[in-house]
Design goal:
Number of strands: 2
Number of helices: 13
Order of helices and strands: HHHHHEHHHHEHHHH
Radius of gyration: 26 Å
Helix content: 55-70%
Strand order of the largest sheet: 1-2
Distance between the termini: 58 Å
Largest sheet: 2 strands, parallel
Shape: elongated
Length: 333
C-alpha cells in the first residue's frame, strides 16, 4: 500500500489535499509569521476558512509557509503533508475502497463473461437472482473489511513492514525464492483459518453466508461476511511483517492472489489434468462449495492431503451433469 499511496500522492492526492486543506488557510495564524505579499490576511475570514482552521495540523514553520506562499506552486501546498497520520488514514481508506471495488468488478466481470459457463445458472441449486445477491453481499462486506484491514496498510505505510526496494539488498536468488515462500506460507495459513471457520461454533455466524452459493459464480468470490473475508486475508498482510519481500513483487502477488480467489469460483469442473493433483483450482473449490468439508486450501492440495480433507475432482462429481440431466428431462417432456 505504501507504493500505491506514493504514486497516488504524486499523481492526484497532493493536489486534492492542497485544495481540501490548503496551507494558505493557516498563514495568518500568529504562530506562523509571514511577510509574503501573496498571503492575504483577512481580519474576517470566510466561514469555510474558519472551518479549515479548526482542523488539526502539524506545526507549520515560518520557513515552510514562506516558501509555499512565495512560490509559483503555492496552490499545490497543503497544511497536511504526506506523512501526516490523519491524511494517510483517509487516503489509504479511500484507495482501499476504490481498489477493492476495481479488482472485484474488473476480474470478476471478466471471469463471469469470458470463463464462467452460464449454463450452470440452470442448476437446481442456483438461486434466483443469485448474481445480484452475490454482488450485494460483496458490496456489503467491503466497508467492514476495509476498516479491519486499515491497521495493516497503515503499518506498511509507516514503515513497519519488511518490504524493501533494492533487489540487491537480499539478492536475486532470494527474490525468486520469496515467491514460493509467499505462496506456501499463505496457503498453509489460509488452510487452517478456512478450516477453523467451518467449526460449528463459528461457521453459522461467520462463514455460512459464503456457502449460501452452492453453485458460485465469480461474483461470489467476495460474497461473504466481512469478518470472514478479513480473517482469510490476514496471512497476506502478515507475511511482509515476518519475511522480507520486494515491494513491487508484493503488489504483483497481492493482485494475483485476488484474481485467483475470483478465478476458483467459476464452478468449473475440468478433470483429468496433471496439475489437478497439485493445484487447488476451480474444480477443487467447486467441490468445497458442494460438500463443505473438503478442499480448504487456497492454491495447493498438499495441506488437504496431509490433513485428510482432500477430495479429488472426478468426472461423476461434476455439477454440470445435473444441468445436462435437467435439460434432457425437459426435452423428453
Amino acid at each position: 500500500m505504501d507504493l500505491i499511496l506514493s504514486v497516488a500522492d504524486s499523481l492526484v492526492l497532493d493536489n486534492v489535499w492542497a485544495k481540501l486543506v490548503p496551507l494558505t488557510a493557516f498563514v495568518d495564524i500568529p504562530s506562523i509569521p509571514t511577510s509574503s505579499p501573496q498571503a492575504t490576511l483577512s481580519a474576517n475570514p470566510s466561514a469555510w476558512t474558519g472551518l479549515l482552521r479548526s482542523l488539526p495540523h502539524p506545526p507549520i514553520s515560518a520557513e515552510t509557509a514562506s516558501k509555499a506562499l512565495n512560490s509559483t506552486v503555492a496552490s499545490a501546498a497543503s497544511a497536511w503533508p504526506r506523512d501526516y497520520f490523519p491524511r494517510q488514514v483517509i487516503s489509504v481508506s479511500v484507495l482501499t475502497i476504490i481498489g477493492i471495488h476495481a479488482l472485484y468488478f474488473i476480474f470478476a466481470g471478466l471471469s463471469y463473461y469470458l470463463i464462467f459457463n452460464h449454463e450452470m445458472m440452470k442448476h437446481p441449486k442456483f438461486l434466483k437472482n443469485q448474481v445480484r445477491l452475490e454482488i450485494q453481499s460483496s458490496l456489503t462486506a467491503f466497508p467492514g473489511m476495509t476498516v479491519l484491514t486499515l491497521p495493516w496498510f497503515m503499518a506498511e505505510v509507516r514503515g513497519y513492514s519488511q518490504m524493501y526496494d533494492d533487489v540487491e539488498k537480499y539478492g536475486w536468488t532470494y527474490l525468486v525464492l520469496s515467491v514460493p515462500l509467499y505462496l506456501l506460507f499463505t496457503d498453509y495459513c489460509i488452510y487452517w483459518l478456512h478450516r477453523g471457520l467451518h467449526h460449528p461454533l463459528i461457521y453459522k455466524h461467520v462463514h455460512k453466508p459464503h456457502h449460501k452459493w452452492l453453485i458460485p459464480t465469480p461474483f461470489a468470490s467476495h460474497a461473504f461476511h466481512f469478518l470472514d473475508g478479513y480473517l482469510q486475508s490476514v496471512p497476506y498482510h502478515a507475511f511482509v511483517f515476518i519475511f522480507p519481500l520486494q515491494r513491487m513483487l508484493y503488489l504483483v502477488l497481492f493482485v494475483a492472489v485476488n484474481f485467483w480467489s475470483i478465478f476458483i469460483h467459476d464452478s468449473e469442473m475440468i478433470t483429468g489434468g496433471f496439475w489437478e493433483n497439485i493445484i487447488n483450482g476451480p474444480s477443487h473449490h467447486t467441490l468445497h462449495h458442494l460438500y463443505f468439508t473438503c478442499n480448504y486450501g487456497q492454491y495447493f492440495t498438499w495441506a488437504d492431503r496431509v490433513s485428510g480433507s482432500y477430495k479429488h475432482p472426478m468426472p461423476e462429481l461434476d455439477p454440470f451433469l445435473e444441468v445436462q440431466a435437467a435439460n434432457k428431462a425437459g426435452k423428453a417432456e
